[in-house]
Design a protein that fits this description.
Blueprint lengths: L6 E6 L6 H7 L6 E5 L18 H6 L2 E2 L12 H14 L5 E6 L2 H8 L10 H13 L3 H8 L8 H14 L3 H6 L8 E8 L2 H17 L2 H10 L14 H8 L5 H25 L6 E5 L4 H16 L1
């Protein structure tokens, strides 16, 4: 069965490591379609704070998995996996699908499949979800209920709490017992850079986002009536900007808050990719090199792998 699944290049790594730039540079070697595995870029109109590829870049290299739902709509790894089946099927025969992103649960959903959710009482689930929507310290509750919880935002924390309370077992327990129902065989390329370099890249990106209109982007969404705690606006960069617009952070504090939160997020991502790509070969590349050089190396390794 495994041999019948397509072999797909998968480029992973922490935020700001350069995944999008490398994927675009691969366009010089392959006719490809990028399948985005990014839990923030699925949201329409969240462009600046998600470092979403520009329209020009997406014309140059087609992307799917971007601009899928409006802010406020919950989007899970399960829905991503279902949507991705259709996206893969729509890739032209003479194009190569390349999965690119930093959301590990999305990547694993395609490579290893998802557990089958046990029955849960709908009324109890509604009560738990309502509590999770406004609960303080939701991430701390998730960590207490599931030792396998490694962060991932309020939506992810709520899911961990919900499963643990309603099934009596942590989400990580169910995932470990999931059958391998993935739709592809991953050919992992993990991009990494020394921490000091990544921190500089993050700072440069955050300041560029603020100079590029992140505050105005968020203000416009709030003015349209998007709730402050809507799915999407709870992501790193957006939640801090909402706090700034509510008067809880100053302008200088805003930049530092986003930089700090992004560094922590990147550390969690890097830890996840170092430890969770089990059972598959992983090529690790130093992303301090220019994207074009990294693309040359990836294309060369792919040809050798296929040869």
């Amino acid at each position: 069965m495994a041999a019948s699944k397509p072999l797909v290049p998968v480029i992973v790594g922490p935020t700001a490591v350069g995944k999008t730039a490398v994927a675009l540079a691969l366009g010089a070697h392959w006719r490809l379609v990028v399948i985005s595995a990014d839990s923030r870029q699925v949201y329409r109109r969240l462009d600046i704070g998600t470092a979403k590829p520009t329209p020009e870049q997406r014309r140059r290299v087609p992307h799917v998995g971007v601009d899928v739902v409006d802010p406020g709509v919950a989007y899970s790894a399960g829905r991503f996996a279902r949507d991705a089946v259709e996206w893969f099927a729509q890739v032209p025969a003479d194009y190569l699908p390349v999965l690119v992103g930093g959301t590990g649960f999305y990547v694993r959903a395609l490579a290893d499949g998802l557990f089958r959710e046990p029955p849960m009482d709908p009324a109890r689930r509604d009560r738990v979800r309502e509590w999770c929507r406004t609960a303080e310290g939701l991430g701390n509750w998730a960590a207490r209920l599931d030792r396998g919880y490694r962060g991932g935002g309020r939506q992810r924390a709520g899911r961990v709490v919900e499963v643990a309370l309603l099934t009596g077992r942590p989400l990580s327990w169910w995932q470990q017992r999931a059958q391998a129902t993935g739709i592809m065989r991953p050919w992992y390329v993990r991009l990494t850079v020394p921490r000091a370099i990544l921190h500089r890249r993050i700072e440069k990106r955050v300041r560029g986002m603020l100079d590029g209109g992140l505050i105005e982007e968020v203000r416009g969404l709030l003015d349209e009536g998007v709730p402050r705690d809507a799915a999407g606006l709870d992501a790193v960069g957006y939640r801090e900007t909402v706090q700034f617009l509510d008067g809880r952070l100053g302008r200088h504090e805003l930049a530092e808050a986003i930089i700090t939160a992004t560094r922590r997020y990147a550390k969690r991502q890097d830890t996840w990719f170092r430890h969770q790509l089990l059972g598959h070969p992983v090529i690790t590349l130093d992303a301090t090199d220019a994207p074009a050089l990294l693309a040359d190396r990836i294309a060369e390794l792919w040809e050798d792998r296929e040869g």
